[in-house]
Amino acid sequence: MGNILNVLITGGAGFVGSHLVERFISKKYNVTVIDNLLTGSKKNLEPFLENENFTFIDFDVQNHIEISQDLDYVLHLASAASPKAYTQHPINTLKAGSIGTINTLGLAKAKSCKYLLTSTSEVYGDPQISPQPETYWGNVNPNGVRSMYDEAKRFAEAAVASYNRIYNLDTRIVRLFNTYGPKMKINDGRVVTNFISQAIKGEDITIYGNGNQTRSFCFIDDTVLGIIKAMESDSSEVFNIGNPNEITILQLAEKVISLTNSKSAIKFVKLPEDDPMQRKPDITKANKKLNWFPEVSLEDGLLKTIEWVENSID
Ligand code: UDP
Question: Which among 1, 44, 54 is positioned nearest to 24, based on CA atoms?
């Protein structure tokens, strides 16, 4: 394997994917993105479209994938990923996680290359232990309102594990916990972008439920570094990638109000069904085996995200 690697990223037009493209392009790698632009945006790829090391293919991973060139890495990110997006596109979400995972695994097998799946903290469902280590099997409603995403990713993990066991494919799985930062889709319904845009516009901050549910937010630069370290590593394992700094949604609302100097009031509305009560990654394994640890504080990350949202909505 030479220094210039050939990398294929499905879902590369999305929030996380386009940040990965940026990192790989800056390493002078050849990057091919496959994305059907269902939730991703070509705008995220604008800086690379004219780059000779970059190729964009408008394609849905639920179809058989043919790539003529050799590949060193396949990273399968393609999927709707926010509760709003996967609720709007349930069948495509199921297909991206199931058929799309099989197709990308088949491609990696044909190219004898390394493979990475981005899974999710949603595989833990509404966890009964905290923090959640990779060894926890989860508490998931198999046919609930989030099941199209949760179960598709659980199937995807099973598919990756099988290709690893049966074909000895060089695979790894990263379970991403809530990540945020510039290039997030602003109207995607996620809590960070909702709160920031509401605060900037002086609208009520909508807290679902009583706001005592917790999440642990990881800034995108940390997330991307974790993914790259897992990709480069020789450990065919599962890694939680997230920031263990856990806060309640009410605390997040207060922080966003204070960082934006907003006059917005807090409004409590109905909690969606199956909304997990807590989420906090145990990242001991990624720390030990990948030498990875998130470094950006919530405050710094939110300030960068606020600046980006401000520039994007006016
Ligand atoms: N949430 C909220 N107000 C919003 C959007 C989300 O209180 O305007 C809550 C939501 O109920 C959940 C948490 O924030 O408990 C994170 O929601 P998000 O959709 O960002 O992602 P999730 O972690 O649930 O997949």
Answer: 54
Atom of ligand 1 nearest to the CA of 146: 25
Q: How far apart are CA 189 and CA 220, in angstroms?
A: 18
107 by DSSP, 3-state: which? helix
* Helices and strands (H and E) in the chain: how many: 10, 13
Q: Which residues contact 199 (CB under 8 A, 6 or more apart)?
A: 205, 256, 257, 260, 262, 264
Annotated catalytic residues are 149
Is residue 22 within 6 Å of ligand 1 at its C-beta? no
Mean pLDDT of the chain: 97
To which residue do tokens 């030990």 refer?
288
Domains identified in the chain and CATH numbers: 6-180+218-244+280-295 (3.40.50.720)
Q: Whose CA is nearest to atom 12 of ligand 1?
A: 275
Identify any residues that bridge with 289 across adjacent strands, giving them in sequence order: none
Residue with tokens 């197709």: 103
pLDDT tens digits along 219-275 = 999 999 999 999 999 999 999 999 999 999 999 999 999 999 999 999 999 999 999
Cα–Cα distance, 299 to 267 (Å, whole number): 23
Q: Which of 61, 53, 66 is nearest to 3 (CA)?
A: 53
Q: Is the CB of 191 under 6 A from ligand 1?
A: yes
